[in-house]
Amino acid sequence: MSKIWFVTGSSRGLGRCFVEAALSRGDKVAATARTTASLDDLVSTYGAAVLPLPMDVTDKAAVFESVKRAKEHFGRLDVIVNNAGYAQIGAIEELTEQDLRDQLETNLFGAVWVVQAALPHLREQDSGHIIQLSSAAGLIAMPLGGAYHVSKWAVEALNETLAQEVAGFGIKVTVIEPAGFATRDGKNPDPLANGHMSEPSPVYDSLRRRLAGVMGKQPSGDPAAAAQALLKIVDSDNPPLRVLFGQGFYQMLRQAYADRLKTWADWQDLSAEAHGNLAQADR
User: What is the pTM of this model?
Assistant: First the structure.
């Protein structure tokens, strides 16, 4: 049976590939973008199977209205893909309050609004699958990406909580953590060049230069292959809560988690000391 998708950030990148993959196999998609002109070719090719919806995820009322329209148009919703987002680049000291608020409004609050709008419909059906696009940046942190990391670490926690809350309603949750994918002219998008940049301070120029030498040099994944992998996840009876897309960060993540476990183990004596012994103190 074909599935009905609701996908945010459908105009380009992985979101666009997800929409095309779903449509090409006979599914139907409510595809959202801030402007829908970029979706005209999909309408020409797939006709009524695609419903283009103008929507900015930071507009809560618009999100709820768009989800409602999609449900009324197609009659149900099976796969909700929270894909819209961007990367704010800047050292913590360089971030303005507006930089941080804007990052969270899109990457975190936008995801929350979509989930809240969709959940009543999914619960009514006793089924559905929420897909959250996170990042390897939701698992580890690097310099100059503080705002982006905060937003992606937050959606990791949000969806791990969500998965436990909605499992009893037959709703599945999967967090996709992509590494580098060739979504810009066959190349990895370089966040130092293509992200939203905070006003740079010369104090961090040397750090920027060092990072520029390594950013974008991870193996480039094929977005079309990522879309086919997503189809397998939404068709699975037992999908993972988390899954990495691409291999560029796998070894780095293994080391990061090993280091965390070792640090906690090395400091267990101090952890016990911090706990104290209230029972003994009361005697």
Answer: 0.92
